[in-house]
Amino acid sequence: MTVNQELGRATTSTANPQQGLRIEGGGALQQTSAGRFALPLKVIDNGKALGDGYLVLTYEGAATLHADIGRFIACVPAPADNSGAGEEE
Question: Is the pTM of this model over 0.70?
Answer without folding.
Answer: no
